[in-house]
Amino acid sequence: MGQESEAQVKWLTTGVVAATGALWALTPLAFLLVGDPGRALLAVVLLGGLLVVYARIVARHIAGTSQGPHRARIFLLFAVVVYGAIPFLGSVWIYTPLIVATAGLLLLRFRYGVGVLLAVAAAEYPLTLAGWAPVPVPALQRSAGVLVASVVAAGIVHYARFVRELRELRVALAEVAVDQDRIRMAGELHDLLGQTLASITLKTELALALADVDRKRAAGEVEATIAIASEAREEIGDVVAARRSLDLGAELSAAVALIELTGASCDLRLGIKKIDEETGDALGWMVREAATNIVRHSDARHCVIELDESGGRVHLLVRNDGARREAGPRRGSGLAGLRQRVGRLGGALEAGGTGEGEFEVRVWLPAVHDRESGHR
């Protein structure tokens, strides 16, 4: 299990156990309200011990891992503690068998878990009649209450597991989208190199064949081969250096969609309507690379993409709140290549953590690109 998945299991488990503990705490509180601190303390000890075991069960269930070979024994522990305490704790304790039913649904196979649920709910009726409310209607109400509460408690744990699985699926889909873009780029390079190398091979073979027959024509074929290689190098440079034109508006929309696909929210704040073509092209690649980094290298829950203009310079901010702690500096050609591109356009790029679990990329570029200096 990866670091991100472990973090999700931890906070989901914490939420479920905290809610469960709050509900279980109502039993000792009831003893205090009726003026019985001794039984309240006993209830706290018993329920506290069961809650520790229950937390482990919940964590394993949310993580999708096996409950281990001793799940039947753990279930019996819940049953013995809960039903064994009924003679000592009386009517206030009568609702706690729902803990046994919930444990059965989480620990045992489905058909056995359902059997335990029905058995616990059915047993609640005679227990209530025998000890505390020898009237059918209240006994039926308690039996139905235990049944419903057990299903709800187990359902909350199942829901937490579905939340974890759904978030992981969203992240996987987002990474697939990123990979598809990389594959598209690789396909372009493959097509370009395949055609170029085939032309170079043919012309080289022709030059070799003409070397002893027509040296002048052979030299012409060699020159043509060199021209093809030079042109191919420029075209490959355009692809690798990301010089092809991008639509900034489309890239902003695609970035928001990609980030939200991971389950995070993304605020897009635009304070500019028109932008220079060269500057917009560069910013489009900044947005694409920043969104890719968020998907690949963060556990973001909320992101902000902000674009505005001030003092003749365009400012782009991409911030997320899920910066990961990594053992060493992140080494990648993406931001380094973009930093060089920004520098060629007379701008500046800053990227790094803010010290509050956030990571942000800031880019400043001239609002109007100086094409003469840019092509110098």
How much helix is in the residues?
Answer: 55-70%
Radius of gyration: 33 Å
Question: Which strand order does the major sheet show?
Answer: 1-2-3-5-4
Distance between the termini: 52 Å
Strand count, sense and closure of the main sheet? 5 strands, mixed
| Count of individual domains | 3
GO molecular function: kinase activity
Domain Signal transduction histidine kinase subgroup 3 dimerisation and phosphoacceptor: 182-244
Protein name: Sensor histidine kinase
Keywords: Kinase, Membrane, Transferase, Transmembrane, Transmembrane helix, Two-component regulatory system
Give the SSE map.
Blueprint: H1 3-24, H2 26-33, H3 37-63, H4 71-89, H5 97-107, H6 110-131, H7 136-210, H8 215-240, H9 248-261, E1 265-270, H10 277-297, E2 302-310, E3 313-320, H11 333-344, E4 348-353, E5 359-366, H12 371-374
Parallel strand pairs: 1-2
Antiparallel strand pairs: 2-3, 3-5, 4-5
Helix pairs in contact: 1-3, 1-7, 2-3, 3-4, 3-7, 4-5, 5-6, 5-7, 6-7, 7-8, 9-10, 10-11
